[in-house]
Amino acid sequence: MEFYYVYILLCSDNTFYTGMTNDLERRVNQHKSGYKKDSYTFERRPIELVWYLECTNPTEAIKIEKQIKGWSHKKKEALINENWKDLIEFSKNYTEYGHPNTRDQSSTSSDLHQFS
């Protein structure tokens, strides 16, 4: 059975890069080595793998990758930190609940967990 991985990298400028691959170790090593000079991560090295999800269906992996790419930085942090309360909060409709930056952020953690 082949696996597909959706992953998030933390870049040196504190931005996140989200990608999808069928070989996570190879792909992360490519990012780390600067395999493509025109890639998003090339000028933002060093990078660190901070989250990944293993999938068996490539279509589902692509769907999840695209969904996460549309998320805010704070929502990605909530996913990485497994902070489900904030992940739900940052998913709420702005017009109904207000912009996430104006909500109480006392429960948000800025510590990132590395997955290996």
From TrEMBL:
Residues 2-78 form the GIY-YIG domain. SUPFAM superfamilies: GIY-YIG endonuclease. Pfam families: GIY-YIG. It comes from Gelatiniphilus marinus. This is GIY-YIG nuclease family protein. Gene3D superfamilies: GIY-YIG endonuclease. It comes from the Bacteria. CDD domains: GIY-YIG_UPF0213. Belongs to the UPF0213 family. InterPro entries: GIY-YIG_endonuc, GIY-YIG_endonuc_sf, UPF0213_domain.
